[in-house]
Amino acid sequence: MADVNRGNRPLSPHLTIYRPQLTSMTSILTRITGNALIVGALLVVWWFLAAATSPESFAVADGVITSWFGDLVMTLSLWALWYHTLAGIRHLIWDTGRALDIPTAEKLGWACIGGSVVLTILTLLAI
């Protein structure tokens, strides 16, 4: 039977007490960017389908993509793509059993964040 004496057991850390680590935050960010890339991909697919449908449909889709909102979504999608790529490379390194110690794992986390920002800026400048 289950132990009903719960008074002596420690409680799980609460969000107000727990200090999130960089590696957990970058892991969560990897999942978020993976899902956010779907939004950008759907926007591009809509643009292609509108181009194949009619000039009027394309004008609407092109107007959305070239608006400030479309530029923001595409820029954030570009950053998400670079971040997700670098995080994937980091996970490939971890899959080999390397760089699993805390200082190196945190350096790789900062490299993913900083590298994705730098690569996004370089990509935007190249366009």
Task: Write a compact overview of the structure shown.
It contains four helices and no strands. It has 127 residues and is an all-alpha fold.
Strand content: under 5%
State the CATH class: Mainly Alpha
Q: Roughly what percent helix?
A: over 70%
Note the quaternary state here. single chain
SSE-based structural type: mainly alpha
**CATH superfamily assignment?**
Fumarate reductase/succinate dehydrogenase, transmembrane subunit
Spatial extent as radius of gyration: 21 Å
| Distance separating the two termini | 66 Å
Uncertain stretches of 5 or more adjacent residues: none
The assigned CATH architecture is Up-down Bundle
Order of helices and strands: HHHH
CATH topology: 3 helical TM bundles of succinate and fumarate reductases
Count of helix runs: 4
Round the mean pLDDT to the nearest integer and report it: 90
Instruction: Label the overall shape.
Output: elongated
Describe the main β-sheet briefly: none
What is the total domain count?
A: 1
